[in-house]
Amino acid sequence: MAHHLEWYPPGQACYPPELPASFRSIHDLKPIVGVPRDDEVIGIHTVMHVASKVSGVPGMHNPRFFMQLADHLFNVQMAKYRSKYSLITSPSVSAYSSVQ
Fold it and tell me: pTM of this prediction?
C-alpha cells in the first residue's frame, strides 16, 4: 500500500507520556513528527510489553501510565493509517446525497 503523504499533515506530532525512570533504559520514547516509522511503533510496543510484564511486581504497576501508553500507541497507529488512506474515507468528512 502506497503512502499518500499529501493526505497527512507533515508537521503532525504524537507525544509520548512521561516515562518512569525505570523504563527509559528500555526505550526512551521521543515525540514522533510526521508519519511514524516502523521502528518508532516497535519502540512503543517494547515499552508496553515491559510495562505489562512488571505489572505483577508490587509497586511497579501504574495503571495511569499504562493507559497513557496505550493511548499513545493508538494515536501513532492512527497516524500510520491516515498516511496510507484518504481522509475522505472518514465518515466525519464525507457528504452523502440521496439518489433520486
Answer: 0.75
